[in-house]
Amino acid sequence: MPSKAHQEYYFLDDGAIFGDVLNNGLSEGANGDGMAIVSSLRSFDREQQKEYLIPIVIKDHGNPAMSGTSTLTVVIGDVNDNKMQPGSKEIFVYNYQGQAPETEIGRVYVYDLDDWDLPDKKFYWETTEHPRFKLNEDTGMISMKHGTRDGKYHLRFKVYDRKHTQTDVPANVTVTVKEIPHEAVVNSGSVRIAGITDEDFIRIWDYKTQSLSRSKADKFKDKIADLLNTERDNVDVFSVQLRRKHPPLTDVRFAAHSSPYYKPVRLNGIVLMHREEIEKDVGINITMVGIDECLYENQMCEGSCTNTLDISALPYMVNANKTSLVGVRVDVLAECTCGARNFSKEENCRNTPCYNGGRCIETRYSLTCSCPAGYNGPRCQQTSRSFRGNGWAWYPALEMCDKSHLHFEFATRKADGLLLYNGPIVPPEADEVMVSDYIAVELERGYPRLLLDFGSGTLELRVKTKKTLDDGEWHRIDIFWDTENVRMVVDYCKSAEISELEDGTPPEFDDTSCQAQGTIPPFNEYLNVNAPLQLGGLYVEQFDPTHYHWQYMPVGKAFDGCIRNLFHNSKLYDLAHPGLSRNSVAGCPQTEEMCGKSDATSRCWEHGTCVGSFNEAKCQCKPGWTGPACTLATIPTSFKPQSYVKYALSFEPDRFSTQVQLRFRTREEHGELFRVSDQHNREYGILEIKDSRLYFRRSVMEKLSSWFTDKTMQSRPKHASCLDTKHSASLPLFINLYTSGDIYAQIASYVFSFRYNLNSLRTEEKDIWLSAVTVDDGQWHVARVSRYGSAATLELDGGEGRRYNETFDFAGHQWLLVDKQEGVYAGGKAEYTGVRTFEVYADYQKGCLDDIRLEGKHLPLPPAMNGTQWGQATMARNLERNCPSNKPCANVICPEPFECMDLWNDYECT
Q1: Could you tell me which residue ranges the Cadherin domain spans (predicted)?
Q2: Residues of the chain with pLDDT under 70
Q3: pLDDT of residue 9
Q4: Residue 99 contacts residue 313 (beta carbons within 8 Å)
Q5: What is the largest CA-CA distance in the chain?
């Protein structure tokens, strides 16, 4: 027998009122074996109450005594002791894209106080079977056949009860079918409700009072329509799903539209702002607005977490006696990855759509967007937004990644203004798990200020720039954070004080005017936000910041100026249509006005872009165009085996910054595109394609020392090492240890890359690459490299997602000295092996180059052009004007009725 200290005692909770049906004294089980016996005082009737929830206190005999409360659910059984009466039922079916398979939609309903008498019943059609619906005669379940069109269907049935010998009791069912488009589902808002089941949410019949009442779903729909100031018919509550049975937790998903569908950020934001009002009027307890399985730190993932909307073709049925809802089965799945940097899935027009009416074009090689005028993002995003000092705009919240990079540009003449805020907009609810995380970036007296809180304390970073940033010019802010460290960089640190001597002494880099760093207060590690991302100002209900335990608050003064190119983890935000906004417009009228003042800039719109600040404007030609007003098409050049171009520049390249842009087209996997180097070929950089991929490499020997002894290096090439310069890359990075130095773009064998070395005394090569895209598809691609000191970015075809990579640390040497006469090449570097013989190393052949720009200045491409105001082609070999195909269809005969189509150095029978 267990000791007395370990025996357990059971008794009803003092607050439980069951004196008329249960014995208040619970008898112990045999010998203190952890059991107790509950006994009733009378018989039960399921028609009166279906179940009892009995709180039982369990207490031991320890010192001190430990106790806990457990809920015992007593379900009352049923006997068929009531006759049925005629009944009617309403079934609403949301048919996702009109493609629902044959599916159960609800059971035939007759009025009967007994609900466990199904085995005694039989169900029949009153007349002939409806061609679009089926009936299970044993269960009364109705199924809708695939292909049923929108409309209202009136179905009539008869029900038979063998115990009471009732025959031909009529039952009428009205089925309403409505197609719900994909656009509605992906633009839906959502709430999570506690304390009621999915059946409770749609139920209109109260069995206790035996009366009809409006369902909570109807009340919720009315409330959403009222808050959005739209017609009730424009709101669809199309998914109600039970997430947990005990205690009940239900997810509700809804969509609304005027002309286009409202965005989720608007729907969720409206609900968030009026949460208490909705709870009171509808009679629900909302525990989450915007279902986010990544919101609570380390609950679903220990690290990065991305919400994925999983839409099933199989509908979800909720059956509640007189009503039934057949909705779309939608699940929010938590994927333990940084979604913006996960490139494991192939791109297609469904998962990578074009914005703002852009047309998505899929080929066997690539995916592109054909965009309407004015939308210049790679996926037709609107890249800029204007604010006038009294407005704001809402966008989707920042996704949760364990390592993040947020950057954007702004221009203003006002010294104070909130640029960005993502965090709570209403006070916390008393009974919910509080999430106090937030990020805010603002200008205060012309200087940038960052506030970041992961929920355990607020970090404040400030940068005292040499000049205030309210000068009307465009400025860029980069913010990096991981689980501990935060960094803010202003304007690529171009204002840093740099000292580099050639005597071998370590370089000096004073970044106090451009960079600030700090550590997040322990112990929370991630930024978890679920409210709208707000630009330009705040729509925030006034609340006491002590509710969230914030040490700092943003000043919050509205921003007067323009914001553009907002990226989070290489994903470009579309600023065209915010979920909600006030006194904010797409574009930047302030700079557009400056562009319109000059004839030169007003005429560059067709093949160029006016790049203007509040002070001046200039034309920036689109790739493939040149001239003062971007009216001249550039002429490409074909590079044959052993081909190259050597340049002499007429300008002095910047030491701290290198900008390279060019167009290329190839089906080869190897070759050098472009290079610049110093006088002795010791300082360099490389833009290259390796194994059909874009890659940029750089070298930092001090950081490689630990890799040389790693076991993984045993299988590497003799003159290569492995360095991962970006945490999210899944492939190793190979670095060739060159003894000579240049900055050059090359196609070699692994990925498309750019590499560079800034130390003239020894190799400190650094690299960035694009490993998730292929470029040997014969299509024209635009490559762009930007280097600022030892930091660099690599972009392909607009530079978003898998087409962007970066390395952004300022370590070691920062200057690159370019030899204007001997250090600039395209297509490979020629090394003379004799008086008239030469060898082109990493030869770019059987491909084309076009529109090469260095620091934004157009360089010539022979034979069409030998010189521009920025440079001359002093040597050129084995080149051909234009970029003709090699006539792949010449010896191809396609079977009837197909014809051979020239795809440039490749063919296809179509």
Answers
A1: 37-88
A2: 1-34, 78, 116-117, 541, 692-751
A3: 63
A4: yes
A5: 115
